[in-house]
Structures are given as structure tokens and as C-alpha cells.
Amino acid sequence: MATLTMRIDEPMEAELARLAEATHRTKSDLAREMLRRQLAIRRFQALRAQALPHAEAAGYLTDEDVFSSVS
């Protein structure tokens, strides 16, 4: 496992420490989870941006268009 060192301001550190204590997890574990989630969101956004032109070309302009096709 690699090591990442980062600086955070005092209010963020205090909030992270409170959350770690409340959830009985380490600050590192929480930071890994938060980073993992943010990376997943970014991957999703990139995939969505790639798929959107194809969906629009196929006539899928709204969520309702998709739901109508799959329901």
C-alpha cells in the first residue's frame, strides 16, 4: 500500500477526528473511503460524458426516455 501525505486545515482535521471517534474508525480509513468515493464519482462523470452524445443520438434526452424503454 502506498502512502499519501496531505495537509488539511484545523477545522477539517477536527471534524475528521470527531467522525473517526464516532464511527470507531481511523482517520486514514475514513480518508481512503472518501477518496475512493470521489474517484468513483469522477469515473462515472467521465463515462457519462462519453455516453451522452450516443444516447442523445439514439433519442434518449431525459431520464423518462430511458425509463420508458426499460419498463
UniProtKB/TrEMBL annotation:
InterPro entries documented for this protein: Ribbon_hlx_hlx (IPR010985)
Example GO biological process: regulation of DNA-templated transcription
Protein name: Ribbon-helix-helix CopG family protein
Species name: Sulfurisoma sediminicola
Higher taxonomy: Bacteria, Pseudomonadati, Pseudomonadota, Betaproteobacteria, Nitrosomonadales
